[in-house]
Amino acid sequence: MTQLIDVRGEHLPVALSLALRGVPVLPLRPGKVPFGNCRHCANNACGGRPNMKTPGPCTCPAPCHGWAAATTNPDVLNSPAWARAWHEAAAVAYHPGGADLTVVDLDNADAITWARASLPATRTVATTRGEHWFYRGVMPSANAVRPGVDIKSTMSYARWLGPGTGPLAALPDTVRALLVKEPTPVRPTSVTVPAPAGRGGRCPHRSPAFLERGIAMAVQRITDAAGGVHATVFGAFLAVLSTHGRCGCLTEAHTARLFAAAQARGESPRHCADAWANAVTRLGM
């Protein structure tokens, strides 16, 4: 069995216990920050983990590279290269994603109230200001997904505060959805389409339901595009304008729906405006 080194500090036994359970761990300095890269690894000179895509120390073998230094190897944790870090450590951290975990970090009472009303119950542990909620499963990490709420999973670390209480639930879609941003509402470029002479701006074809159906079909066409989103957006705009653009019935509310659908597929507000203007030009309006 690996023997503990003399200058291990009080945190190494905790780290070794977690590593034995498959939780990748690393030491934290005061201020809850990882130890910086050693001089051999400064500015990623070592080439070991320049993109921080996989956990584990580089070949230096000091506890460098933040979360990517986290390991379950007791020989590494108990090595002379890590001795000083453990002696100076203020806490133990772990890589949640490496342990197949996601931590929802709730920073205040309002965030906890929101979580209790919105998320499935799971294992929790108290923090200095709030709570950590643990879920089984991994996802990208992100800060400030909503007021007082951070996500810690892949490519991140969390401070070890104890095993927590309560059964561990599977990572729900409600947590994954926190990373999905709503499209930013954009006021579409106003396009004036003159009505044909003699029609007084009245719609010459069918009923308002016909226009509504045309907008809905265009929105669905954009939403369902499997590829070539730019071309699909332009084609949808062209179809709407060719059928409904000369009667004066299109409003900013209609174009806002079309623009929002396009932006939800990654189109920029500038491209939406350009595609609309190009469709108007193509039809000679």
* Count of helical regions: 9
Most strands sheet: 6 strands, mixed
Range of helix content: 25-40%
Query: What oligomeric arrangement do these chains adopt?
Result: single chain
Q: What string gives the helices and strands in order?
A: HEEHHEEHEEEEEEHHHHH
Beta-strand residue fraction: 5-15%
What is the C-alpha radius of gyration, as a whole number of Å? 28 Å
Describe the global form.
elongated
**End-to-end span in angstroms?**
82 Å
Secondary structure category: alpha+beta
Model regions low in confidence, pLDDT < 50 over at least 5 residues: 1-8, 49-55, 186-201
Average pLDDT number: 82
Strand segment count: 10
Descriptive overview:
The chain has helices spanning 12-20, 74-77, 80-88, 109-118, 173-176, 208-223, 229-244, 252-264, 269-282; strands at 25-29, 33-34, 91-94, 101-106, 123-126, 131-136, 142-146, 149-152, 158-159, 169-170. With 285 residues, it is α+β, with helices and mostly antiparallel strands. The strands form two sheets. Strands 4, 5, 6, 7, 8 and 10 form a six-stranded mixed sheet that branches. A four-stranded antiparallel sheet has the order 2-1-3-9. A hairpin with a 2-residue loop joins β7 and β8 (149-152). It is elongated and about 80 Å long.
In short:
With 285 residues, the protein is an alpha+beta fold. Helices cover 33% and strands 14% of the residues. It contains 9 helices and 10 strands.
Write the layout of secondary structure elements.
Elements: H1 12-20, E1 25-29, E2 33-34, H2 74-77, H3 80-88, E3 91-94, E4 101-106, H4 109-118, E5 123-126, E6 131-136, E7 142-146, E8 149-152, E9 158-159, E10 169-170, H5 173-176, H6 208-223, H7 229-244, H8 252-264, H9 269-282
Parallel strand pairs: 6-10
Antiparallel strand pairs: 1-2, 1-3, 3-9, 4-6, 4-8, 5-6, 7-8
